[in-house]
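Renewal narrative, Specific Aim 1. Our central claim is that a sequence can be written position by position from structural information alone. The example that follows is taken directly from our test logs and has not been curated for this report. It begins with the structure tokens describing the chain, in the order in which they were read.
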């Protein structure tokens, strides 16, 4: 960020917050409560949870206005760089008997002219069936349900994982207490997180949600967009199980990504 912009936005933020405090006659006690909540989120290991729930969707939408390819979605607090590089056939690292229905997440990555983009890095992360993210929440194996895979020469990717449940924000932490004070619920709809990286088009961050799932209309992070909702297809015929070499029903979701040069422009402006 350019120094001029840092100064301009910080000064406006300062002014905006001071106006806000005057408008509401914020007391010293209230002010200290607020700073304590912010400190507690860090101590409680909530990472950027509080901020991401309240503000990240708005920031993402500001960026989406200028985008020409697929929309971005919020990153959320639980992305970790450096997930294992996987080898095909791609399967996210998981426990021996990972709970949850088997899910194949696949799709194509193309440019705006519809041309296949090979060798795009697809960095996927997801909660487990208890709603826990590895390397964040204790009791999960390292890098569980996280991994990086690559599109093939047709721009196609596919990875096996599990159908995640809706994500419930911890009720007893500072973020949960703020939501309680507001009378809101604690849930995000089930989702998969993904980042795509292309040598020219740069990086984009998205999420996919499952049609018909709970909380799509009331996501606590207010981050769902119609374009990000995909059909969760159940496969249970003998032929489809045989084609996958599986002995129990599985699910499939497809999401096709269009990458544009928007990120390049953003990078050039920095
Ligand atoms: C999540 O899994 C998430 O994606 C966001 C944005 C906030 C909390 C938990
Ligand atoms: Fe998430």
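The sequence written for that structure reads:
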């Amino acid at each position: 960020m350019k120094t001029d912009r840092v100064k301009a936005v910080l000064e406006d933020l300062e002014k905006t917050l001071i106006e806000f405090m005057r408008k509401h006659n914020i007391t010293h006690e209230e002010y200290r409560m607020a700073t304590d909540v912010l400190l507690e989120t860090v101590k409680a290991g909530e990472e950027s949870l509080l901020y991401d729930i309240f503000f990240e969707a708005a920031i993402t939408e500001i960026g989406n206005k200028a985008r020409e390819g697929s929309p971005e979605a919020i990153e959320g607090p639980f992305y970790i760089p450096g997930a294992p590089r996987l080898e095909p056939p791609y399967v996210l690292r998981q426990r021996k008997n990972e709970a949850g229905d088997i899910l194949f997440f696949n799709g194509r990555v193309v440019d705006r002219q519809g041309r296949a983009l090979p060798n795009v890095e697809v960095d996927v992360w997801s909660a487990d069936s208890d709603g826990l993210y590895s390397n964040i929440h204790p009791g999960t194996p390292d890098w569980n349900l996280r991994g990086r895979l690559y599109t093939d020469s047709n721009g196609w990717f596919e990875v096996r994982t599990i159908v995640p449940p809706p994500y419930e924000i911890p009720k007893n932490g500072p973020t949960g207490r703020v939501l309680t004070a507001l009378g809101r619920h604690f849930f995000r709809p089930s989702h998969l997180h993904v980042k795509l990286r292309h040598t020219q088009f740069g990086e984009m961050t998205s999420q996919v949600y499952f049609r018909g799932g709970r909380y799509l209309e009331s996501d606590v992070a207010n981050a769902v967009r119609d374009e990000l909702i995909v059909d969760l297809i159940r496969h249970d015929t003998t032929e489809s199980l045989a084609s996958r070499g599986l002995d129990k029903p599985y699910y499939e979701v497809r999401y096709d990504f269009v990458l544009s040069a928007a990120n390049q422009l953003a990078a050039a402006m920095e």
